[in-house]
Design brief:
With 340 residues, the protein is an all-alpha fold. The protein contains 21 helices and no strands.
Length: 340
């Protein structure tokens, strides 16, 4: 009975929520040491969970800690940077005093390079930083950063500049080490970072498609249309490489089941309100009979939902899917023919 209770406690928590609970049980110094080994996106996911978790009972805490000790003992890895969003998030989760001490410890131990420092900045800040740089420099920066951050950076430029940057990203194959070193040095002087290993291969059609994938759907459609007007083959290549919500039907059943374990029911209900019936059937098929019935009931009971809310929920689920794919936990298949 005790084992069943432990399984139920864990079943209600995603892996990120478990990590957040574990982190919040540690002292500031130990938490800081763990966080130092995480990247920006991992910190944001764990920090968001820390800030939003509620009604966590003692049994869940004990179960999470017990599972952690059993599976990995003292070996793990996590990190934190100076991004204001993360600062606010941890402050909300831990309070001013604890969050302040934790963030200070991490910032003192930071060792990001000039370009890597941009990963910790708000997209609007990065956009302002590169706004008056040469378009090719803008393309290099956008290629270097994660696709979702780059998409938000592009949203801060007008349509003409966005199109120019995406076209340059798609055409970009490699950057001379000296040029990349110069750009990195300029940024390091601004952020007082340390030199790191140079990456000279970046950009390309796949990177461009990943960025457009994260852009707001209306903006993405406009971008694709403009790209096709200039280069129809390139536009088609980018579109074919994009993975959209309807493409979930191409993910195998095990992958869908893995994805569903990371998605809350509330988010799933909103996303499925505007989904193709084939996608809905794919989801129902990979749930228990009881869970599928409850989800159908929730969908029927859910009132009208704004298109923007449906798109937002679908993009959030796609973000989770891409994260799982990057971790090798699922395989994404198929190309997109339509935006969300």
């Amino acid at each position: 009975m005790a084992d069943d209770e432990q399984e139920n406690n864990l079943a209600n928590l995603s892996k990120v929520e478990r990590a957040a609970i574990l982190l919040m049980t540690l002292g500031e110094q130990d938490a800081a040491e763990i966080l130092k080994h995480m990247g920006p996106k991992e910190v944001q996911r764990v920090g968001t969970a820390m800030a939003t978790l509620s009604n966590v009972n003692q049994n869940q805490v004990e179960t999470v800690v017990a599972q952690f000790l059993e599976e990995v003992g003292g070996q793990t890895g996590m990190g934190l940077g100076s991004d204001q969003y993360i600062r606010n998030m941890l402050t909300s989760a831990l309070g001013n005093d604890k969050a302040g001490a934790l963030i200070d410890r991490i910032l003192l131990g930071g060792n990001t390079t000039g370009l890597d420092s941009l990963k910790w900045m708000e997209p609007r800040q990065v956009a302002d930083l590169i706004r008056h740089e040469h378009p090719q420099i803008q393309a290099i920066v956008v290629s270097y950063l994660d696709a979702d951050q780059s998409a938000e950076i592009l949203s801060n430029f007008d349509e003409k500049v966005r199109l120019d940057i995406v076209m340059r990203v798609a055409a970009l194959e490699a950057v001379q080490p000296a040029a990349l070193q110069e750009l990195n040095d300029i940024l390091e002087r601004q952020f007082s970072g340390k030199a790191g290993t140079q990456t000279t291969s970046m950009g390309g059609v796949k990177v461009a498609a990943s960025i457009v994938n994260y852009v707001d759907s209306t903006m993405a459609n406009e971008l694709l249309e403009s790209i096709k007007e200039m280069d129809d083959d390139l536009g088609t290549q980018i579109q074919d490489l994009m993975f959209v919500f309807d493409n979930l039907v191409d993910v195998d059943d095990r992958g869908i089941q893995t994805l569903l374990r990371e998605v809350s029911t509330d988010l799933l209900v909103v996303a499925l309100k505007g989904a193709d019936p084939t996608v809905q059937d794919k989801i129902f098929k990979n749930m228990s009979k009881r869970a599928a019935e409850l989800l159908r009931d929730d969908l029927e009971a859910k009132g009208p939902v704004k298109v923007s809310e449906v798109e937002g929920a679908q993009k959030e689920i796609l973000t989770i899917a891409r994260r799982l794919a990057d971790a090798g936990e699922i395989i994404l298949g198929g190309g997109g023919e339509a935006m969300l």
